[in-house]
Design brief:
By secondary structure, the protein is of the alpha+beta class. The chain has 2 domains: 3-77, Roll (Ubiquitin-like (UB roll)), CATH 3.10.20.740; 91-232, Alpha-Beta Plaits, CATH 3.30.70.20. The protein is built from 6 helices and 10 strands. A hairpin with a 6-residue loop joins strand 3 and strand 4 (61-62). The longest helix is centred in the middle third of the chain and has 17 residues, at 79-95. The chain is globular, with a radius of gyration of 19 Å.
Length: 238
């Protein structure tokens, strides 16, 4: 397979043809913040946290869904990018009702951790305070739309790892939300296998195990990537 050679933050790196900028950055030991990215499932570039600058290209590009090109010179930590990431994380908090102190994922939330890492100590935008509800009809799991950031990790996990196709995204703009089957209660779903993979994939407190405390809401998305790897290597057939 052909190799592409490029530069990331002044570091030369060579990766296989077809690799993403995010893959190349990992190979170079450069950390790029992500929220919607999860190993083992395809990327959609939904959260825009992994935007990077490429010399010669005026617009910012999402590292997770951009394929590297020969000779690219990429910057991942410029002042422009820091400002964009700070703006993005603040808008995510303002769009819905994220109250960390009252969230079951407090202390185990990727959104919260990202805000800390970017130095977000306040939100400069007006909060929307939308009237989103909760779905507690499932015997094991709950969905709190107030905490959802629409990363669609649960949707992609349900479709491409579990293969059930239970979760999806409905609506447009600020009205977008995660639905179960044909927008019915989760507890009435005929396709949900009760596997809990969607809960494991969620980066916030939007999906949770009913009855779990904040200390118990630890997640390990890497386990889901291990399933994909094992299937690819034919180590098991499930």
């Amino acid at each position: 397979m052909s190799v592409r050679t490029l530069t990331i933050d002044d570091q030369p790196v060579s990766v296989e043809e077809g690799a993403s900028v995010l893959d190349a950055a990992k190979a170079a030991g450069v950390a790029i913040p992500t929220l919607c990215h999860m190993e083992g499932i395809h990327d959609t570039g939904a959260c825009r946290m992994c935007l990077v600058e490429v010399e010669g290209i005026p617009k910012l590009l999402p590292a997770c869904s951009t394929t590297v090109q020969e000779g690219w010179v990429i910057h991942t930590a410029t002042e422009r990018l820091r400002n964009y990431r700070r703006m993005n994380i603040e808008l995510l908090f303002a769009e819905r009702n994220h109250v960390c102190s009252a969230c079951v994922a407090n202390g185990n939330c990727e959104l919260q951790t990202m805000a800390y890492s970017l130095g977000m100590d306040h939100v400069r935008y007006d909060y929307c305070y939308p009237r989103w509800g909760m779905d507690l009809t499932h015997p094991l799991f709950g969905m709190d739309h107030n905490r959802c950031i629409l990363c669609a990790r649960c949707v992609r996990t349900c479709w491409h790892i579990e293969g059930a196709g239970t979760k999806n995204v409905a609506g447009r703009g600020a009205g977008s939300h995660i639905i179960t089957d044909m927008n019915q209660d989760w507890g009435d779903s005929a396709t949900c296998t009760w596997c809990g993979k969607c809960v494991q994939s969620c980066p916030t407190g939007a999906l949770f195990q009913i009855g779990a405390t904040a200390a118990e809401m630890t997640r390990d998305p890497a386990r889901l990537a291990d399933i994909i790897t094992a299937r690819r290597k034919k180590e098991w057939n499930v």
